[in-house]
Each structure stands twice: as C-alpha cells, then as structure tokens.
Amino acid sequence: MQSPSPTPSIFDRRLLRLRLERALRGGAPDFLMARAADDLADRLAGIKREFRRSLDLCSPSPHFARAVESSGRPLPLRAAALWAADGVDVVASEESLPFAPAAFDLVVSGLDLQWVNDLPGALAQVRRTLAPDGLFLACFPGGASLVELRAAFAQAEGELSGGASPRVSSFVDLRDLGSLLQRAGFALPVTDIDAFTLRYDSMFALCAELRAMGAANALTQRSRRPLRRDVLMRAGEIYAERFSDADGRVRATFELVWLSGWAPHESQQKPLSPGSAKMRLADALKAPKLGESDKTSE
C-alpha cells in the first residue's frame, strides 16, 4: 500500500511567521480585521445559541475573540500557529489541532486560513473538534483580491523580463469552498463574499501597507531575485494607467470570503429523499400538464 503523498508546500510558513510577528510588533494596519470582526458580530447576533465552548483559530489579532465576547458568549480560547502575541492560549498548527474531538461548540477564524498549505486537512481538523450541532465561521481573502496588482506586475515583467514570476500570493476561489466544506463533513455549508474597493495614492502606497500587514508575497515558488527597479517602476505606471480614478488615486479590489458549516446533528434540516414530494413542480408553478393544449374561446 502506497503512503499518502506529502502536502505540497505552497507557502513559506517560516517566512510568514517572521513577517507577521514583525507586523504585530510594529502596529500593523487592522482595517481588514476590524471590518471582518464587525461582520462576525452581526452573524453571531442572528444565531440563538449559547456556544459556551469556543475557539478562535489563529486569527492574527484579538478582533474575532472580542466579537464573540461582545455577542454575549464567553471569550474564546485563542490558538496561534504563525505568530506570538499577548492573549494567545495555545500554539498549534491549523492542520494538526491538539484538541479532543467535540471539544468546542463554536470555532471562528479570521484572515488566517489563506496561509494554510493543506486547507482540506485544516477544515477536517476543525470539523473533528466541533461538538454535534457546533458552528464553524471563517473569513479570509478571496480570489479576486488585489487583481489589479497581479495584472500590473504580470504585464510589467512580461514587457521587460520576457516572463512573469508570481508576485502576489494566491487566494482560494469561492466556487471551491462549498465542496471543501462538504468534503470535510460539514452540514448546511454556506459561502458568501464581501467585496469592496479601497483607494490609494499609488501602487507603492498599497504595497507599503501590505508589507506593514505582513501580507507580502510568501509563495514558496516566488522568485528569490530582487525585483528589478525598472520592472517595479513600470508596474507602477501600468497600475496608474489602468486602475486610477479621475483624481489620480488608484483602486485596489479586496474580497472577504465567508464560509460557515455545522457539525451534523439529528435536529438539523435535511433534504427530502428523491420521490417523496407531495406536489408536482408543475402544479406548484401552476403550469399546464404535459400535452394539455390551450383552449381559446370561440
């Protein structure tokens, strides 16, 4: 019997840890986390469950834990994998959680799972730690985030270097997440997107903010050569030409992808089995039966 293939190393986790720890020490911009935490609070406000045992899975700041507490639930246990900060209770990998099965009623995670090499494995770990009818809520950047920056770098390198190296980390596409949740064993999976645009003085201002957040390119397959100055300047020109507004400021697209799923429980709604419907679809739609001709008055 062949042993399972090793998980491909998409992200340089050591580099990510160093960058995130430096960003936290330097007071990283937290507007994305704040926006996501407000959304989490709204989502929890509409759920009438106590969630006495909860886990904040590796969110890089206390925003998500505070959102859970502000909803009237106990403050979650906080786990961290890539970084170290005040208030962290457990150091753990998302792909190998050190918790007993059914240990939590609620697991939340904000802006962390985009850095996981084995996302299906991480989701399976979360599912294992949830008690029956427990809820998982997570948020991370979506596939269209920073699409302008990708395009500008790709065009500039194509023009001046004869080829392009990945300069912006890849993000998960929304269409893949529902199936990943089902594969991990979640019931009632739901995915949705909060898409918005931010504006900056230039592409260079955007890149500076990404570096301050510890979110610069950390792909394992990234080029190790320093980016040539002429390529960088050309990318800035392309960005300004293609993605600027009338006032000269440039646009940057961000997507916050949300996914949620429940640990299965007998009380949850289930789809009807095939053939168990009590009414024909045509009757529900008040459509004529097959072969029935229209009658006109004489």
Structure commentary:
By secondary structure, the protein is of the alpha/beta class. It is built from nine helices and seven strands; from the N terminus they run H-H-E-H-E-E-E-H-E-H-H-E-H-H-E-H. The protein has helices at residues 13-25, 31-45, 63-70, 119-129, 147-160, 174-183, 203-212, 229-243, 281-284; strands spanning 54-57, 77-80, 90-91, 104-110, 130-141, 187-200, 250-262. Helix 4 (119-129) links the parallel strand 4 and strand 5.
Please describe the structure with a list of short key phrases separated by commas or semicolons:
Rossmann fold, globular, single chain, seven-stranded mixed beta sheet, 7 strands, 298 residues, alpha/beta
Quick summary:
The chain is built from nine helices and seven strands; from the N terminus they run H-H-E-H-E-E-E-H-E-H-H-E-H-H-E-H. The protein has 298 residues and is an alpha/beta fold.
Report Rg. 23 Å
What is the averaged pLDDT score? Answer: 85
The portion of residues assigned to helices is 25-40%
- What's the count of strands? 7
Give me the CATH superfamily. Vaccinia Virus protein VP39
CATH topology: Rossmann fold
Separation of the first and last Cα atoms: 78 Å
Per DSSP, the total helix count is 9
Tell me what portion of residues adopts beta-strand conformation: 15-25%
Overall tally of structural domains: 1
Second-tier CATH architecture? 3-Layer(aba) Sandwich
The largest sheet is:
7 strands, mixed
Which structural class do the helices and strands define? alpha/beta
The CATH class name reads Alpha Beta
Shape: globular
**Biggest sheet strand line-up:** 3-2-1-4-5-7-6
User: Which spans have pLDDT < 50 for at least 5 consecutive residues?
Assistant: 293-298
The string of secondary-structure elements, in order, is HHEHEEEHEHHEHHEH
